[in-house]
Amino acid sequence: MTELFRFLFALTALLTFLQPANAEDFPQPPELKPDVDFWVSIFTRYSTSEGVLHDSRNLGVVYERIDIPAKASVSSTAAIAFLRLPTIRFRSRRLAFAGISIRS
Fold first, then answer.
1. What is the largest CA-CA distance in the chain?
2. N or C end of the chain: smaller count of CB under 10 Å?
3. Kind plus residue range of the DSSP H or E element containing 50
4. Could you tell me the pLDDT band of residue 48, with boundaries at 50, 70 and 90?
5. Cα gap 1→85, rounded to integer Å
6. Is 71 left (phi over 0), alpha (psi -120 to 50) or beta?
7. Cα–Cα distance between 2 and 18 in angstroms, integer?
8. pTM tops 0.90
9. Residue 70 main-chain phi, psi, to 5 deg
10. What is the pLDDT of residue 23?
11. What is the pLDDT of residue 45?
12. Confidence tier at 28 by pLDDT (50, 70, 90)
């Protein structure tokens, strides 16, 4: 019981002196905003059993969501993505032929 009391006292003392970080402590360059927005969307929209195939130059362009099997290895996940590439390339070329740009 004494150990618990000491732990709670120390935790309370620590939390009393901690202050929230100021926005100035974390600079946010405007050129990083699209990339930050991409990662926020990845961690808020998709589960650990999903992945996305996205443009390498413009992270805001997501071509397709893919399902990742439970306990899939990194190599099997890469193989799933690799098998989708021809379809994505075909769709991209078709859009380009129609004059629609997917990159900004």
1. 74
2. N
3. strand 50-54
4. confident
5. 60
6. left
7. 24
8. no
9. -60, 140
10. 64
11. 92
12. confident
CA distances from 44 to 1, 39, 41, 48 (A): 40, 8, 5, 11
Tell me the two tokens of residue 20. Answer: 């929230």
Note the helical H segments in the chain.
Answer: 2-17, 33-45, 74-97
At 44 the pLDDT is 93
Name the average pLDDT for the chain.
82
Hey, what are 53's tokens? 């195939």
Q: Which residue has the tokens 């690799």?
A: 82
Q: Which two tokens stand for residue 62?
A: 């997501």
Judging by beta carbons within 10 Å of its beta carbon (0-12, 13-18, 19+), is residue 98 exposed, middle or buried?
exposed
Residue 63 in contact with residue 85, Cβ under 8 Å? no
Amino acid in the structure at residue 12: T
